[in-house]
Amino acid sequence: MSWKSFPKIELHLHLEGAADPAFIRGLAKEKSIDLQKIFDENGNYKYDGFGEFLSTYEAATQALQSPNDFKRLTQSVLENLAEHNVVYAEAFISPDFCGGRDLGAWREYLAAMQEAHVAGVTLKGIVTCIRHFGPEKARETAKCAAETASDWIVGFGMGGAEDVGRATDFAYAFDIAREAGLRLTSHAGEWGGSQSVWETVNDLKVERIGHGVHSINDLNLVRYLAETGIVLEVNPGSNVALGVFHSFAEHPIAKLRDAGVKVTVSTDDPPFFHTTMTREFEELERAFGWGSDDFKRLNQTALEAAFCDATTKEIISKRLDT
Ligand code: ADE
Ligand code: ZN
Known about the structure:
The chain is of the alpha/beta class. The protein contains 13 helices and 8 strands. The chain folds into 2 domains: 20-65, no CATH class; 86-98 and 119-321, TIM Barrel, CATH 3.20.20.140. It has an 8-stranded parallel β-sheet, sandwiched between helices. Strand 2, helix 4 (103-113) and strand 3 form a beta-alpha-beta unit. Residues 14, 17, 57, 159-160, 187, 190, 238, 268-269 line the site of adenine.
């Protein structure tokens, strides 16, 4: 069946990664930037493997040059979310791509993003440092996050190449964010193994992990995640598209859930992976026979794990019931 009208929550969505290729092509044209090399003959994003994915992703962000570009991007992402009845989403946003981590510029970008609006969809932001840009830039990013913590900027996270440095190198950045009252998440266990997840939970003290799927290879870690209630932001379509797993059927999300780990489902960078929240649900139904009760359970886990305030949660909870 189609799960398009089923209400959904998405906790792991990179704002720039959610930009439709046509939107980026349009912006590039307006600014006379040549980005032809990042598109294939069908106009889709082109990459082969994770390293190239990150390069294509960063090249696409070159078209996003002003607060107004980010307002337009946020508006278009909200419209895409509404189409799939995503009633609440948390988006990763990076000061690196919004004025190069300058606090004054960052405030302007942020204000512009918050002007975007679609009825029935609530969006919150998680300021995100990029691991392969290094710990110093991560600290600058954390300072931007700390200065702009609010009921809209609700968290701090880290994406990027997991094989660069160790989690502990970024502990200071996460300390800055934590002291500002921000909730914490970090990518780990996507390309790295269970050791990377252990280091991330121990050294960064996060309450959610982006991906975390390689935890499945370490029974002690699975048990630890289940006992502590650390939530995994799982992105099955992303993992399959990037070759982390061959297929949905081979994806460990069902095993993790059945072992008591709190799992949620998101799209990561939907147009890059030719996915949507609706497609994720459809593939999970096909691979594991998941249905309405399973998706309600996913929503409940996501609602509890969301970084927003209690009043917002009440509003979202009502939207899930309709
Ligand atoms: N940034 C955008 N998508 C990402 C992913 N899947 N892993 C790490 N960093 C990312
Ligand atoms: Zn991600």
